[in-house]
Design a protein that fits this description.
15 strands; 4 helices; four-stranded antiparallel sheet; mainly beta; seven-stranded mixed beta barrel
Length: 263
């Protein structure tokens, strides 16, 4: 046998190296994870939150057991995150519903559309955030210069537009800070098995830590929602605008806990 053939034989039949997946980490892909281990720290996170009254029957179709609705209220959010450790720079938009669970008030996160793949993957895989790819923006109108504008596009179509007078009136930042820190937030985590059948079906709770609100404001506010088959924010129509607020905060997204398992 020639040296070349002997060398090839050794290469083909030699023992393969056993890779220990457990030492590679918890996130996919195993050799190059899409995001780092939490917690995630957010600096100068901007919120534009529009609270509105919607149709009660439509809202009841969106909120799962064992959460209950106290009032037909929705909070539509545009959130700008310019500095997120491990996740980068991105913007998010979606609907949050005030609920009650075990006799305590909380918030149910119904939908989130954002423009950042690591944040989508980490949010869905770890906590069960209802994250989906979209194109949200939040900025001061560059022409009028006096209007805060939040917009959400799904593909080429606009599905949400919020406007508010920019910093017309100061709000008590400490009250917002306390609400962010103390209010429990709930998610539905759904992960399929390899055959597509249900694997994980859980109600998850998460909290925010080290919350610091640097300023908060309100002003005249409006919200428009547009129908779309795959971004159904208009399923919860705007009947009456209740309030709008804009604030800037620092915070940490903390680990979650499983509150209820769906059989």
């Amino acid at each position: 046998m020639s040296l070349i053939l002997l060398s090839l034989n050794i290469m083909v039949s030699g023992p393969s190296r056993k890779v220990d997946v457990n030492k590679k980490g918890n996130y996919m892909p195993h050799d190059s994870p899409s995001y780092p281990t939490p917690p995630y720290v957010f600096t100068n996170r901007e919120y534009f939150v529009i609270t509105y009254e919607t149709d009660l029957t439509a809202l009841q179709e969106k909120v799962p057991y064992p959460l209950t609705i106290t009032d037909p209220i929705v909070k539509y959010e545009f959130i700008r995150m310019p500095d997120s450790t491990g996740l980068g720079d991105y913007t998010e938009s979606g609907q949050v519903i005030p609920i009650e669970y075990n006799g305590k008030n909380g918030l149910f996160i119904l939908s989130m559309y954002l423009d950042n793949e690591p944040a989508i993957l980490a949010g869905r895989e770890i906590w069960g955030f209802p994250k989906k790819s979209g194109i949200p923006t939040l900025r001061v109108d560059p022409i009028s210069r006096d209007t805060l504008v939040g917009r959400l596009f799904y593909g080429e179509l606009e599905v949400a537009r919020g406007t508010m007078g920019y910093k017309w009136k100061t709000l008590p930042a400490r009250e917002i800070e306390k609400s962010l820190a103390d209010t429990p937030n709930y998610l539905i985590k759904l992960i399929p098995d390899v055959d597509g059948s249900p694997k994980i079906r859980e109600l998850v709770k998460y909290h925010l830590g080290n919350v610091s609100v640097k300023g908060a404001w309100t002003g005249p506010v409006d919200l428009q929602l547009f129908h779309h088959a795959l971004a159904p924010v208009a399923d919860l129509p705007v009947k009456r605008i209740i309030s709008g607020m804009y604030f800037i905060s620092d915070l940490i997204l903390l680990p979650g806990t499983v509150e209820y398992v769906y059989e």
